Amino acid sequence: MDIFQWIGFVGMAFVVTGYLFLQLNKYDIHSIQYQLLNLVGAILLLISLCVHFNLGSFIIEVFWIAITIFGIFKNLRKRKNEKIDTFNP
């Protein structure tokens, strides 16, 4: 295995670990840890796919990254609004 296959392997491990922790109720779907595992895992997989290209896998990783970034911003905005609400009873 070359370095890019190892990078992809680590990315896969991040995504699978995040999903496992979600199923074990270690992480909540909105937890930043879960979202970061997904984001970093997808980015590492995308790096691997730039060398060992597969169109279907490349497209799904691009969507995975975009959806995860959307979820992170959505959750950060929700937390910010919750903090504002606690200061304004």
Helix content: over 70%
Structural class: mainly alpha
- The overall average pLDDT, rounded, is 94
* SSE succession: HHH
Please report the distance between the alpha carbons of the first and last residues: 58 Å
Mass-distribution shape: elongated
Number of helices: 3
- Give me the count of strands: 0
Radius of gyration: 16 Å
DSSP strand content: under 5%
State the low-pLDDT regions, or none.
Answer: none
Explain this structure:
With 89 residues, this protein is mostly helical. The protein has 3 helices and no strands. Helix 1 runs antiparallel to helix 2. The longest helix has 33 residues. The model has no long low-confidence stretch (mean pLDDT 94).
List the defining traits of the structure above.
single chain; 89 residues; mainly alpha; 3 helices; 0% strand; elongated; transmembrane; transmembrane helix
In a nutshell, what does this entry contain?
The chain is mainly α.
Helix and strand layout, with pairings?
Blueprint: H1 3-23, H2 32-51, H3 55-87
Helix pairs in contact: 1-2, 2-3
